[in-house]
Amino acid sequence: MTAAAFCPACAGTSDAAEAVSRAAPGEVILALPNVHCLACISGVETALNAAPGVARARVNLSQKRATVTLSAPVAPEYLVEVLALAGHTALLMDNALLLTLGDATLRGLLTRIAVAGFAMMTVMLLSVAVWSGAAGETEQLFHLISACITLPALAYSASPFARNALQALRAGRLNMDVPITLAIVLAAGMSTFETFSGGETAYFDAALSLTFFLLIGRYLDQRGRQAAKSAA
Q1: Is-contact 210 188, C-beta < 8 A?
Q2: What angle do CA 178, 182, 183 make, to 5 degrees?
Q3: Structure pTM?
Q4: How far apart are CA 26 and CA 171, in angstroms?
Q5: Residues 215, 209 contacting (CB under 8 angstroms)
Q6: Distance between the two ends of the chain, CA-based, in angstroms?
Q7: Helix (H, G, I), strand (E, B) or coil at 189
Q8: What is the pLDDT of residues 33-61, one digit of tens each?
Q9: Residues 50, 78 contacting (CB under 8 angstroms)
């Protein structure tokens, strides 16, 4: 007799996991690891509903999956390809794979938060020196040091936003990562221009602060979804 037979809760969890991984006849369940906003939901549902053989597609944001009701036999791989052409990442439903992807995403976000936070505090200390009255060559030197710290940190820490934004733009659509990426790029780009043109103002600390707090929000959102999946 297995351990699950002694524990009704474990048995229920096992049955639920099996039910989730097995779609009903005429249905396909796809995992959507990169879906995180209403624009993503709309884009996925629009792309799937326009595909031949699809009667209806609904996205569950909290579980990051799409349930596709078929009106004709359609290979799941075809639906994955349809979403790829629309700029969305989709996987055939696999609970173990989803948990692995979720853990890797959380670890990556934590590392990026640490890098952005450390860079932000360092640049803010340099900014305090400038605000306190540093001028001339000293001010220019502090701006150059801030640029050397900020640009590599942003290239690493803001990459999740930039990657999702580029993926959406290539597919001819918008999501909430597009304005986020635009704000970060503009703040960093204008600060770099001011630094190398001898300007008096630079906003490297603002670009890093925006990235830092947005990453915290993304991490808390992802962790909340993981906790909800575990509880379910």
Answers
A1: no
A2: 120
A3: 0.63
A4: 28
A5: no
A6: 25
A7: helix
A8: 778 777 788 888 888 888 888 888 898 87
A9: no
β-bridge mates for residue 68, sequence order: 28, 57
Q: Helices marked H in 86-136 — which ranges? A: 95-131
- Which residue reads 């670890």 in tokens? 107
Amino acid, res. 87: G
Two tokens, residue 189: 């780009």
Buried b (16+ CB within 10 A) or exposed e, 65-88: bbbbebeeebebeebbebbeebbb
Please choose, from the candidates 211, 192, 167, 203, the residue with its C-alpha nearest in 3D space to the C-alpha of residue 37.
Answer: 167
- Give pLDDT, residue 85: 85
Short-list 205, 186, 15, 174, CA closest to 87: 174
Task: Please tell me which residue, 209 or 127, carries the higher pLDDT value.
Answer: 209
Element (H or E) spanning 59, and its range? strand 54-60
CB–CB of 161/182 below 8 Å?
A: no
pLDDT tens track for 132-160: 776 777 888 888 999 999 999 999 999 99
